[in-house]
Fold each of these.
Amino acid sequence: MKNNIKIFAGGILFLFVLAGFGGCKKFLDAPPLNTITKAEALKDEASVVSVMNGAYQIMNGNVFGGKYQVFSELLADNIDGTTLNTDFGEIYNRRTSIFGDYKKNFYLDNYQANYRANTVLENLGVVTGRKDDLEGQARFVRAFAHFVAVRLFAQPYGFTPNNDHLGVPLRLTTEITPGVRATVKQVYDQIIADLKIAEIKLPENNGGYPTKWAAKALLARVYFSMNDFTNAYAYADQVIKSGQFIFESDYSKRFSEGQSTEAIFQMINTAGAYDAGGELRTQFRSDVNLPTLRFTQALFSSISSNDARKAWFNNVKYPNLVVTTKYNKERFNVPVLHLTEMKLIRAESAAESGTNLSVAVQDINDIMNRAYEGTKTIPANSSASLIKTTVRYERSIEMAAEGDRLYEIKRIGAKGENIDKRGSVWNCPGFILQFPQEELGSNTSFVRNPEGGCN
């Protein structure tokens, strides 16, 4: 079987033809490596490139194509889950068990991508002209896979004073070994180590592959999730000042087909070849049918009538129900890292550290000018407190329906403030997913998450 895959990462399109990707779901199997030996599969640079492309296929199709966003939105506080049942109802009610195919398949796919990245790292010896580039790409994907897993399946950074609470398995080789949970500190240390190598190894412009700017943007997000505002500011600042990305004057172009100038790392859709964001359309699209996932009246009401972003939601088409219009298109690109997020990170990091407040004000006003069409800004001499309050509100609207809110509840909670609108404490057991039976079965002593849910 052949799959034509088009993926966009850092600004340029590339097309791959991959062979042998079947439907096998055994834990950590990685076709085509399960059908022929590694020596046969990875005999030259082209073979290693093919395996690297397979990692992107999984990460971009089965993780960031919508499932990651669905989990994150269900666990947060903007979804109206009163009619949800089965897997989605269990996740929304913050009482996940070891069962559920939606969660299982997501978890296995994420670690599949990680496995392929490790395969690339272990076979760089056959690579000639692109060794640094491929190492950087593999470390970038491995870091992202571990970051996705630790955010959903473990309590956040700051849950314990030394972050020695249990995280997720660190899989750094292709050896199939029983799952053992590393600490959250160990996982974050590895993510950062991989990304710091990636930012050195990857070029500034890379013909469609991840660039050093993608690695830096992900580092900004990682440090921000740790409440490490010095490093979060520094990395977001580097990306913004690089000149590689242009802030959009039109807020709606982020989810468009080939029009956004803000994308740092994204999937690109090509009709008939690669349909990016399929799961986003499946669960959120509202112009054809009533979608499974709807939003709360509280979220809709929090957006003022003079905010252009209110058009991202509709409460008329289906009376008494709020749906998003963000994904109401046959085709669109899915930005995974983008310039607006970097501005939000830089602004709040500046406010938290009490430095570079003028930069923070400009970042916020860029976003507000776009949203309110020049009718609303904050003063140039705004206090750190006002900046922080404003940027958090702007983030809550700007990133709505993109799977961001859950991590704000956790990150801000770790700083001592509960902001969950459903009334749960930020560190209750239900805010993290239970590991699937396939992982638990790999090691009889594997420590599962508590299943106490949230009040």
Amino acid sequence: MTAAVAVEVADLVKDFRQRGGGTLRAVDGISFAVEHGEIFGFLGPNGAGKTTTLEIMEGLQIPTSGSADVLGLDSTKHSSEMKRRIGIQLQAGAYFNYLTLREILDLFGSFYPHNLAPDDLLARVGLADKAGSLIKQLSGGQQQRFSIVASIVNDPEVVFLDEATTGLDPHARREVWDLIRGIRASGKTVVITTHYMEEAQTLCDRVAIIDYGRIVELDTPEGLVRGLDASYRIVFESRDGVDVGALSGLPGIVTAGPARDRTGAFELSVRRPAEALRGLLRWSEDSGVELGELQVLPATLEDVFLSRTGRALRPGSPEEGEE
């Protein structure tokens, strides 16, 4: 592990025994490194292996084979020493029901040789006025902000956050994003898991797309999108008959078909948007097909996920035996 690397995972495998016999391979031989000071994200559906990988790095799971080193420490062999230097987000249900926020942070801080003042931590996330409240008295967004600030009570060097914004409304989600950016700005390394495309694209310096226990692509969000054969989409509606096959043959258009996010609309994956748009408008005029609500959109991580896995990522899908 070099000085620039905070986390290094090599050939990691994790199998779980299933009820009735047999094994489930949750993590299937993945390798990657996380640099100091970056926000590194795992993007994938529930059951893809994100949480299992995170728990191995945190020292909460023992790998079947392979290794995970955090801050130069093997997460299995040197788990106790490593845990003093990392922060792990807990879900709201893991906290004591009858302790106040300040008391919880005081208790957690007592487990470490070095800790941050509870009132300072609460002030950082806008919860100073809730110091005497119970966790159950907070809104969903406040609970998530508290769970993140509780993970940095020991002033860790690496912070692990698992689905930090699941179930939050857009405003609360962006508040959590700002908090995570603030943690990184203070010199920490942050590793997150998410199944929100926008979150990964907006928040992460680099993203590993994980599916069925394997990393299928790893790069910056911009690099992942640039690697697509078609880096733009043209979406339009029409009440007239549309020959999708004819559209597929137009210059600059890679694929054509029904739009995945607009009922009754059509979508073109395009390599050169200006050329494709000229060809589409020419085809519209020649064929007498009127186009409406036409938009030219840049490709996103969802397009990358579709391209690499052949299926859409749907947040909130049932667990597939990851734990």
Amino acid sequence: MSLTLTPIKSIPLIRHGDDLADILVSAMRTTDIQLQDGDILVLAQKIVSKAEGRTVNLATVTPSEKAMELAPQTEKDPRLIELILQESNEILRTRPGAIIVEHRLGFVCANAGIDHSNVSPETFEVFKDLEGLKVEDWVLLLPENPDHSAAQIRQKIEAATGAHIGVLIIDSHGRAWREGTVGIAIGVSGLPGLVDLRGQPDLFGFKLQITQVGAADELAAAASLMMGQAAEGTPAVHVRGFPYPLRKGKLGELLRPKEQDLFR
């Protein structure tokens, strides 16, 4: 068994309204990748968010009273805090430089996943008149519904190529119990998020009692290594050799129920 991850080259800077499925099919032709049944495409959240117009300039945001209250505690721009509040179900922790929230999509993350890196007005056309809007004030929100985004991209690529594939949308998150960010799945379509191995025998015939594998997150972490975190310009990775059968999947499989979350 082998797992092969290949960066997909020749993907341009993505703009609002771009058709990611068409761009990926064209880029795979350029990279000489022929899709096969069982292959998976892993996409960085940023290109999905940009294509969907999830960019906001802070100059257009009016902070609420709650945002103004949190600004000195977190040492953050109150306009950014307002966006974090809008994208969150609940604030869990705060400290200077970070706000830990339950995102409206259900997972726990810092700053509601809102990011400044690799965002500039040249990559989208949300506003016709950019005069007076500072480049450093542009931020990017997570996709509105990453599972739906992944499904749409998958279905269009399958129709264009005839291959039965999976699509994974990933982001970089920290973890409660370790330093460093890792790639995790935030949108899943056509592959399992969680693989339940309970009841299967180990090497000595004992049946596994609690083992469930976060397969989508494991793959997300591997693909994130290929993408990089800075100026690498590799927002999509082709995967062949995923060790589990493809099936319908969703982000919700990976989300731990609140009553079982010992870190809250």
Amino acid sequence: MTDHDAEAQLLRECVGYGRLWTAAAASAFGTYITVLAVQVLIVQTLDGDAAEVGLVNAARWLPYLLVGLLVGALVDRVRRRPLMVVADVACALALATIPVLALAGHLNLGWVMVAMAVFGTATLIGDAASQSFLPRVVPRPLLSSAHARIDQAGAVAQGGGPALAGAVVSLLGPPLAVLVDAVSYLTSAVLVATIRLAEPASAERDEPQGRGRGGARTALRGVGRDVAEGLRWVYGHPTLRPLAISSHVWFACSAVAGAVLAPMALRDLGLTPATLGLATAAAGVGALAGASVAVRLGRRWGAGRLIIATRTGTGVAWAVMAIAPSVVPAGGSTGPWGGGLAWAVFAVGQLLLGLCMGAENANEMGYRQTVTPDRLQGRMNTTMRSLNRAAIVVAAPLGGLLGDAAGYQVALMVAAGVVAAAAVVMAASALRGARLDDHHALAVSASMHP
């Protein structure tokens, strides 16, 4: 039996991992449909521009900026599985309002932003709980393999979701496509609710919470202390610090790219929702390939070197997509494929983007969860995720404005250049030598928080 087969068998024996994997796959499939459907909804149904796409993206991630750090403290104080269930149900309800209002003729950009903000709050809580729950289900030596298998399922969803979304949007219109995601979150809620795993109510505390008004003040002081502890852990750690900072830059650049990709494809390339969905599906194919080799590459090169390489590759992918409008035939696009070659160049960029993201995520998540103790998992995850999403809140509208003012190609090239420069800086840090089996890093983590 190979190491790969042995790890697969061990994961199957982890109580609850199968349901957790299925729940993640179900919600991921629906989410990729919503990503395309909402973008088409804004550009075509509501006649929006890149700046408005950026505003809706910012609304989705705004809760991370406002309450993300507090959510991390909450997750480390309570059982994580019930939070995941409630969050999935809230996601389903928020998404369901979009087709309901569209059918009633009352849907507008403002409500889409409100729905995305509620959806973002629920996913903030659910993702923080889920990422902190996984290390309770899976032993730490198997975390990278566990993430890789979840990433593979997500990659299949990424490949099939946009293509299906393009067909559904073309046939029924974008609002109804969002219903698929609502159903997927309800499915996820049922699967997580039926996981049979006893988990502690909360991490141990050094001070009592107390009762009454004084107890409330003590609890608030405790939350502030917990938030500060999480910040110190992430930004005081020799390898988590450069990983976190570079991730913030990556998310800001990704927000710029995300604000202009759909308008560029639909307007400059002349693609239809269906052909855009097929091009985006190439990212799913790449992500599946990347996730399939992520663990092996991480062990051979080291998690740090692989993360640096894939961040550089992401910049190359955006640069390739920026070239696509330049190969549109003279006189404009010909048909729904943008002249064929333009669509192919755009799809190649999507393929490379998915490949890099698929190879990176399992190693990044596995490494940071391996070096972080259980009682800090929630705060570590939400500290990094909150500031990542805060970068989106700021960069998405600015990226849309840049795209509208200077051109979509310029905005994409700016994003590509900045993320590549950040990878160079990261290569000069301690992260370059980070490995999942790095006993020195584990010893440093233990000394920081025994």
